[in-house]
């Protein structure tokens, strides 16, 4: 049996606890050596998960610099699951310490930080994967293959929607503090939609018109975006973060010879080909989450679907959305989009 991947988990809040549960199911491939969490309460709650699975909770070193100095030689990788504003500096430190990194979405706060992490990845030679469950899922990978194979014909348009009672759920948390979050619902839960749509399109946005509404909160919770891709195909994006208690999504990708239906997290994959009256569900291998896929990328058994170039692409798209919304929906061109050379 190959050696276990030894990992540090940076941040043990609510999202991290979701990931930890899946990681502990993969104890034959993974060993959590240490965590870094400034909140004693969050650390205690995460520790109970380890106990639930029959493991001793790992030690906690809240200071990342000290953690890397004390444990760096024992580690292979870091999983960073902290507020968005901390992603750049924490990832840079881990890469420079010689660790591969799985980084929660969105990758960074802006395009400048994304460019910096690309430079750090190249300079250190380490692996950086952005933890988008959609792009890392078997469903979206299969959908991208179908889209790029040509068997469904030419891409015509994409329609995507995500909805959640996000405004209420995140009220009073760091997610509604722009200095920590970098944006609202469209940059948080909606980031999955932005990433998955561009992944399915296989190309960049070149024009965007957007309308955002804060609904009285510090960040946007509602948004509608109309965009045009480099090929001329059109896209509509709808984010509703003030709805009834729920969290779901729907994505339709229209081709000249068929239609794909999926979700922004890869919840399902359905196909309707020319001549068929109904969608057919494609049965694919279930996933144990983003950590399982990170290990597959790390072992080179699958290409990296979410390198930092993807984070740069999404940062540029969100910047254009904000710029358009600030001008009441005026069309904004993403002039640098075609300059991105993605390394997979």
What does this 3D model show about the protein?
- By secondary structure, the protein is of the alpha/beta class.
- The protein has two domains: 5-132, Rossmann fold (3-Layer(aba) Sandwich), CATH 3.40.50.720; 135-339, Dihydrodipicolinate Reductase, domain 2.
- It is 35% helix and 24% strand.
- A nine-stranded mixed β-sheet has the order 13-12-11-10-6-9-8-7-14. A five-stranded parallel β-sheet has the order 2-1-3-4-5, with helices on both faces.
- Mean pLDDT is 94; it is low at 337-344.
This entry's quaternary arrangement is: single chain
Total beta strand runs: 14
Return the string of H and E elements. EHEHHEHEHEHHEHHHEEEEEEEHHE
Regarding CATH, which class of the largest domain? Alpha Beta
Low-confidence stretches: 337-344
Question: What integer is the average pLDDT?
Answer: 94
Question: How many whole angstroms does the radius of gyration measure?
Answer: 20 Å
Query: What amount of the residues lies in strands?
Result: 15-25%
For this structure, the CATH topology of the largest domain is Dihydrodipicolinate Reductase, domain 2
Q: What is the number of helices?
A: 12
| CATH homologous superfamily grouping of the largest domain | Dihydrodipicolinate Reductase, domain 2
The strands making up the biggest β-sheet line up spatially as 13-12-11-10-6-9-8-7-14
- The count of domains is 2
For the sheet with most strands, the description reads: 9 strands, mixed
Looking at the overall shape, the CATH architecture of the largest domain is 2-Layer Sandwich
Shape, please?
globular
Helix content: 25-40%
Question: What is the structural class?
Answer: alpha/beta
């Amino acid at each position: 049996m190959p050696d276990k991947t030894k990992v540090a988990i940076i941040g043990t809040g609510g999202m991290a606890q979701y990931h930890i549960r899946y990681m502990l199911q993969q104890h034959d491939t993974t060993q959590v050596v240490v965590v870094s969490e400034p909140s004693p309460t969050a650390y205690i709650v995460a520790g109970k998960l380890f106990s639930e699975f029959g493991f001793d909770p790992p030690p906690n070193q809240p200071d990342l610099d000290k953690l890397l100095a004390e444990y760096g030689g024992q580690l292979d990788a870091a999983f960073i699951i902290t507020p968005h504003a901390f992603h750049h500096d924490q990832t840079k430190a881990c890469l420079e310490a010689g660790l591969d990194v799985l980084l929660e979405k969105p990758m960074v706060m802006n395009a400048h930080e994304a460019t910096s992490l690309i430079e750090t990845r190249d300079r250190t030679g380490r692996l950086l994967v952005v933890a988008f469950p959609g792009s890392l899922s078997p469903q979206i990978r299969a959908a991208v293959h179908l889209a790029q194979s040509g068997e469904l014909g030419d891409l015509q348009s994409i329609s995507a929607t995500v909805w959640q009672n996000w405004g209420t759920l995140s009220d009073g948390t760091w997610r509604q503090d722009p200095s920590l979050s970098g944006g609202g619902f469209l940059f948080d839960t909606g980031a999955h939609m932005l990433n998955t749509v561009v992944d399915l399109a296989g190309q960049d946005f070149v024009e965007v018109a957007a309308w955002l509404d804060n609904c009285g909160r510090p960040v946007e919770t509602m948004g509608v975006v109309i965009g045009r891709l480099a090929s001329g195909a059109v896209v509509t994006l709808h984010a509703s973060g003030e709805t009834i208690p729920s969290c779901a999504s729907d994505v339709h990708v229209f081709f000249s010879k068929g239609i794909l239906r999926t979700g922004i997290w890869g919840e399902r994959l359905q196909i309707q080909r020319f001549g068929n009256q109904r969608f057919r569900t494609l049965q694919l291998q279930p996933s144990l989450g983003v950590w399982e896929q990170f290990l597959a990328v790390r072992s080179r058994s699958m290409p990296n679907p979410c390198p930092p170039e993807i984070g740069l692409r999404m940062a540029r798209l969100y910047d254009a959305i904000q710029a358009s919304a600030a001008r009441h929906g005026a069309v904004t061109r993403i002039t640098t989009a075609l300059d991105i050379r993605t390394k997979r």
